[in-house]
Amino acid sequence: MRALMTSAMNHSDAQTLSPESVFDALSEAVLVFDNRLTLSAWNHSSTVLLAQYVQPSTDLTLGTLLKQLPAITPLRSPNSFSPQPQRPKSQPPQTLQDMHDSLKAGDVLPSFTGECHLGKGIWLEVTLHPQEDHSFLLSLHNISRFKESLRYLERSAEAMTQQLLEIQHHREFMEEQAAKMVGMAEELAIAQQAAEDTTARLQSTLNTMADGLVTLDMDGHIQTHNHAMKKIFGYNSDELLQSHIQVLISTVSHNGETITDFTDFLQSLPENAQGQSLAGMALRKDDQRFPVELAITELHMGGQKLFTVLMRDVTERYEAEKRIRDMALQDSLTGLANRNLFHRRLEDALKSAKRMGTNVAVLFLDLDKFKPVNDTYGHGVGDELLKVVARRLGFCCREVDTVARLGGDEFAIVLTHIVDPNDIDKVAKRILEALTQSICVEDHNLHVGTSIGVSFFPADADDPDELIRMADVALYQAKDDGRGVYRLYNPAMDTKARDSKAMEEELEHALLNDEFALVYQPQVDAMDGHVIGVEALIRWQHPEKGVIPPLTFIPKAEDTGLILPLGKWVLRTACKQAQRWQAMGLPPMRICVNISARQFEADDFITTVENILAETGLDPQWLELEITEGMVIDKVEQVVKRLQRLSQLGIRLAIDDFGTGYSSLSYLKRFAVHALKIDRSFIRDITEDHDDEAITDAIIRLGHSLGLEIIAEGVETDDHVRLLRQKGCDIFQGFHFSKPLATGEVESWITAYNKERH
Fold first, then answer.
1. Is the pLDDT of residue 64 over 70?
2. Is the CB of residue 243 less than 8 Å from the CB of residue 236?
3. Rounded to whole angstroms, what are the CA distances from 43 to 106, 199, 250, 302, 612?
4. Which one of 177, 268, 457, 532 has the largest count of C-beta atoms within 10 Å of its C-beta?
5. Residue 512 to residues 536, 628, 700, 742, Cα–Cα distance (Å)
6. Cα dist. 475→397, 431, 453, 455, 481 in Å?
7. Every domain range in the chain assigned CATH 3.30.70.270
8. Residues of the chain with CATH 3.30.450.20
């Protein structure tokens, strides 16, 4: 700054620009107290700022000023305290008043920084800096805009740790500036004590400021500048002194208006704009635009009207605020639009489509088998999977479309400017194909897939919320139709959706009101015909609709999660009944219970089985759990461990509906199972269909080669019995022997069956 100000002083139009004049024109208030704590110098900003509290004069003492100002809260405590040798050691001052009292006592103290609330949203940063000659400098810096930004960030419900760190960085930045202002105040105080080097010291102080400072003439030409201007804008001193302010400042905002002619704004500078923080956009030498805060002060020197402009680069603050705004509209995990932005984009798309006479499609989709991925591999892998899905969805859509993540594994898409609704068929198939392909995350090959529901504007509705509801209804229809498909909304789906919702509510009510019951179908030994066990089958005894078969309500229980409490009830009731029959004197027999996929995958499944056995007192050897092929294929390692644990407890394990799935010898050899159950679809036509007979024969041979028992369900005729016995089947179950029996019928049936058999 020394070289700069010297250059300015030699400029033909700037002889009258003294450092004292520039100091007096600063927007920050600076006051100098002598060693008696009496005011000896102050600038114009001090007079304006303190007008409502006290009139600066040479009679004003530091103590009087502190009593007039509102309470000053310290920002940080001094780092050290060094009392004069002859005085007793005391504690560091915690407030500015403590510092004043210590000064009166003659103690030598470090600088003090605090903040003061003047009311009406005005906050000051107050810095008192003792000098070596026992004089004191007090600087008052308006930090109202920073406090406003800080409160805004603190109110943001979605501000994350990164924003808090940036706020802390901003405070540290302001503290650095305050420290540098102390340096400026120190130079000013020394200048008053040594008039011969006042100019040089003021120049040096202005150059240490991190904020840019320029002096302009009436036409906006730069007369002087500090070193920070070079750093901020990338120009050298000669380039700056030959420049017009319009080269640096492109726009200024005042009272909600964006002003592009900065020179015109200066020449008609509103009184309420002087000394206030104004937002603007600046331009660096490399044409990079960035946001700034400006403080403009008008001054008169030697009959000439000049302006000082203090400017601060606020890029970091603007970026923090932008991130906060983005968080309100963007999914933080995938970077896709969130629910709020999705609704906004859908409304905009509908307005545009109404004007242009085009169509809009809303697609709702969620992932199939996503929950098992989270449960098996953890949420970290699940999150990475969602990111890959988000990218694939983006590749399937155009830039004008909107892909959003609504939460969890739910996604939505707005397709705009659709001329032919049949084009949606191509998009939906492209999405299904993209998500059917395996996804590799942390060396895990994951398979998920998706189901899609679609609604159209204007064919289905013209209201955004209604279109969303319809797409959601179509999505549930796609799930009911087997997943991995897409469905277009039609009004009939509403009725089905209402019925589905009603069944869900009735299922919850049925669990609470004991509307479920078990029936038991006997299993007999194929060789000698004795009863070896019964399979427990659930029935829903609806008070109005009568008996509802399991195929009607089990899928809904699976989808809603009600299968978990329902499955526990079935297992507990079956074990309790088996123990009761043994207590009645019936020969011990196995009780077979079907286990759903969601039950088997639950973290507490093994513990639940152990607890129920302990609670009912049933010996584990009399319990057989039936699982399906599909449950054991997807996560082989996890299944192996669970089956081994159950087998170690003494529980028998059977694979139900065998032959309808993979029927792989490789996994059968690894699983601790005891029996295979041939699906009834192969038994029904075994005497007439050669393919069914061949499959049944292969299953029996495969099972026996692994040392497993073979159970045939759906045995209904003498021919079934004869053929299956010839092939070596071990156990029969079906209507040929008995229909499923109510609890009270089992004992009498066994008695009658044994009597007839003998």
1. yes
2. no
3. 27, 16, 31, 18, 85
4. 457
5. 21, 28, 43, 21
6. 19, 14, 4, 10, 10
7. 333-490
8. 13-203, 211-321
Residue closest to 201 by CA, chosen among 189, 213, 214 = 189
**Contacts of residue 12, Cβ cutoff 8 Å, sequence gap at least 6:** none
What is the C-alpha end-to-end distance of the chain, expressed in Å? 118
* CATH superfamily to which 13-203 belongs: PAS domain (3.30.450.20)
- For residue 93, cis peptide bond before it (omega within 30 degrees of 0): no
Of 638, 664, 642, 660, give the one whose Cα is nearest residue 651. 642
Query: Has residue 194 got a pLDDT over 70?
Result: no
- Is 389's pLDDT higher than 50? yes
Q: Which CATH number fits domain 211-321: 3.30.70.270, 3.30.450.20, 1.10.15.40, 3.10.290.10?
A: 3.30.450.20
Is the pLDDT reported for residue 160 higher than 90?
no
Q: Please tell me the predicted confidence (pLDDT) of residue 635.
A: 66
Task: Give the pLDDT confidence of 308-328 residue by residue, as tens digits.
Answer: 888 888 888 878 777 766 666
Residues 549, 592: Cα–Cα separation, whole Å: 18
Cβ-Cβ contacts under 8 Å for 633 (sequence gap 6 or more): 661, 662, 664, 667
Q: How far is 449 from 368, CA to CA, in rounded Å?
A: 5
CB of 203 closer than 8 Å to CB of 227: no
300 contacts 306 by C-beta, under 8 angstroms: yes
DSSP state of 271: G
Where are any strands of DSSP class E within 10-106? Answer: 29-33, 39-42, 72-76
Query: DSSP assignment of 561-630, as one string?
Result: TTHHHHHHHHHHHHHHHHHHHHHTTPPP-EEEEE--HHHHHSTTHHHHHHHHHHHHT--GGGEEEEEEHH
How far, in Å, are 58, 719, 736 from residue 690 at the CA level?
Answer: 117, 14, 22
Distance from C-alpha of 489 to C-alpha of 493, rounded to nearest angstrom = 7
Are the C-beta atoms of residues 457 and 360 closer than 8 Å to each other? Answer: yes
CATH class assigned to 515-757: alpha beta
User: Cβ(180)–Cβ(267) under 8 Å?
Assistant: no
Domain range 333-490, CATH class:
alpha beta
Q: What's the pLDDT tens digit per position in 401-412?
A: 999 999 889 999
Model confidence at 92, in pLDDT bands (50, 70, 90)? very low
Cβ(523)–Cβ(732) under 8 Å?
Answer: yes
CA distance 342 to 320: 23
Task: Say if residue 5's pLDDT is above 70.
Answer: no
Which residue reads 């009258």 in tokens?
A: 16
Three-class secondary structure of residue 146 per DSSP: helix
| Of 416, 417, 538, 431, residue with least CA distance to 475 | 431
The two three-digit tokens of residue 488, written as one number: 């277009």
623: CB partners within 8 A, 6+ apart: 575, 578, 590, 591, 593, 613, 651, 652
Contact between residue 527 and residue 581 where contact means Cβ atoms under 8 Å apart: no
- Residue 584: left (phi > 0), alpha (psi -120 to 50), or beta? alpha
> What tokens were used for 323?
């991130």
43 SS3 class: coil
Residue 1, exposed/middle/buried by CB under 10 A (0-12, 13-18, 19+)? buried
- Residue type at 390? A
What pTM, to 2 d.p., does this model score? 0.45
Sign of the dihedral defined by the CA atoms of residues 330, 331, 332, 333, in that order: negative
Ranges in the chain annotated CATH 3.20.20.450 = 515-757
CB atoms within 10 A of CB 396: 20
Count of CB atoms situated within 10 Å of the CB of 687 = 14
Beta bridge partners of 652: 624
Residues pairing with 698 in the sheet: none
pLDDT of amino acid 83:
35
